[in-house]
């Protein structure tokens, strides 16, 4: 139930890969590798693969004000998430597939009367990526793949208008947008026990042209500046990701995976709402590019049971001077567990769970940086992720829990 990476990358993208800590670029035992490395589906064993599942997201943050010394906890509102993958070998060397998942998103809800209510009361972003994919197996050791990305996202924000004593004075912004991108990858193996993967997912810009702003509780003299309803437009910049991965079968039953990810969060410089009355509502972000390191292990205990564990470290892209209650992110150190049960030889039940803990982040108000909405205080964040899924394969060799 939570974000599995720095910034607002979300999950789960796969119950099985969640148990590995997300180290999946060179992992070909799950069709969800299509999202992480489209080249890898060229080496899937069976003719047909289908995987479906999900659960949700919950990020738990608390805030202690510098002056008030009062602690406020985020309200617990999990954000549902799901995924669907399907692939088939249509020729001896050609495979095609389709993935539908939710790679970016967050949901932040603070009490309506908390001391930072003029910064944010509620904020939510959800996205859906639809990726048709084709892969070509060059030879027994190498395959390449590419996918086209159609992205849809919707945004919602609500905050109090702090210039008024009336706490019912509020601003609410809602909108949705679409964007396009691509995903390319290479999978290779140097021996039966060692494989590698390299992939690049391009950035995506969600263009929100139909946004609606609504103001309530505004004094009559300010009605022209804050009308009851007004349109706006904005662009939401989603980052690219470069991934490099290794997978090593260390023994007959033990597989170890490693991933390195570099995400171009620096694209997310600000969030600007261009209002219909020619005004602009600006929120500075100034994110930085961030790295992530992931290690996972998978052990085939019996023909029907496979267990997994993983660790991860995700850098936060949020600079110290831009910490805010919208997404009080931090460097995250996480651990994960998972298992697969073979209900039938070709029907698998996957389960995964991860927990990540962030360090304390201190926010300070700087009046010279007026595009940053924040209040003085300290944030702490913990993240939980859980997922359940089913995987089905047909054709090729029989599939066990560890294959």
Automatic annotation (TrEMBL):
Provide a GO CC annotation, any one: cell outer membrane
Predominant location category? membrane
Domain of life of the organism encoding this protein: Bacteria
For this UniProt record, the keywords arranged alphabetically read as follows: Cell outer membrane, Membrane, Signal, Transmembrane, Transmembrane beta strand
**One example GO MF annotation:** long-chain fatty acid transporting porin activity
| Topology term for the membrane | Multi-pass membrane protein
| Subcellular locations according to the entry | Cell outer membrane
Q: Pfam families per the record? A: Toluene_X
Could you say which protein family the record assigns here?
A: Belongs to the OmpP1/FadL family.
Enumerate the PANTHER family for this protein: OUTER MEMBRANE PROTEIN NMB0088-RELATED
Q: What is this protein called?
A: Outer membrane protein transport protein
What species does this protein belong to?
Hymenobacter sediminicola
Q: What is the lineage of its organism?
A: Bacteria, Pseudomonadati, Bacteroidota, Cytophagia, Cytophagales
């Amino acid at each position: 139930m939570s974000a599995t990476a720095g910034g607002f990358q979300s999950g789960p993208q796969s119950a099985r890969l969640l148990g590995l800590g997300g180290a999946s670029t060179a992992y070909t035992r799950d069709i969800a590798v299509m999202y992480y490395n489209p080249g890898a589906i060229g080496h899937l064993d069976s003719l047909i693969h289908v995987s479906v599942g999900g659960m949700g997201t919950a990020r738990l943050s608390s805030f202690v004000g510098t002056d008030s010394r009062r602690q406020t906890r985020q309200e617990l509102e999990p954000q549902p998430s799901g995924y669907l993958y399907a692939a088939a070998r249509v020729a001896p060397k050609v495979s095609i597939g389709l993935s539908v998942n939710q790679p970016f998103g967050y949901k932040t809800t603070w009490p309506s009367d908390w001391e930072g209510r003029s910064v944010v009361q509620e904020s939510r972003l959800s996205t859906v990526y639809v990726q048709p994919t084709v892969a070509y197996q060059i030879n027994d050791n190498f395959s390449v793949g590419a996918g086209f990305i159609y992205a849809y996202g919707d945004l919602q924000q609500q905050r109090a208008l702090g210039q008024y004593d009336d706490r019912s004075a509020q601003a609410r912004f809602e909108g949705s947008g679409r964007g396009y991108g691509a995903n390319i990858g290479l999978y290779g193996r140097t021996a039966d026990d060692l494989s590698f993967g390299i992939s690049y997912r391009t950035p995506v810009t969600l263009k929100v042209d139909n946004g609606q702003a609504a103001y309530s509780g505004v004094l009559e003299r300010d009605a022209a500046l804050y009308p009851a309803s007004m349109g706006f437009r904005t662009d939401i910049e989603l980052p690219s990701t470069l991934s490099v991965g290794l997978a090593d079968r260390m023994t007959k039953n033990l597989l170890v995976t490693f991933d390195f990810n570099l995400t171009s969060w620096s694209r997310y410089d600000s969030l600007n709402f261009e209002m219909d009355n020619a005004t602009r509502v600006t929120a500075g972000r100034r994110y930085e590019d961030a790295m992530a390191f992931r290690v996972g292990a998978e052990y085939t205990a019996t023909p029907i049971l496979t267990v997994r564990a993983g660790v991860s470290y995700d850098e936060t892209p949020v600079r110290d001077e831009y910490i805010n209650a919208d997404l009080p992110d931090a460097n995250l150190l996480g651990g994960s567990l998972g298992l697969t049960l073979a209900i039938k030889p070709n029907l698998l039940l996957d389960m995964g769970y991860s927990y990540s803990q962030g360090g304390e982040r201190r926010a300070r108000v700087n009046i010279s940086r007026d595009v940053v909405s924040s209040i003085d205080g300290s944030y702490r964040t913990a993240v939980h992720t859980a997922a359940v899924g089913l995987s089905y394969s047909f054709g090729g060799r029989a599939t066990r829990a560890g294959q």
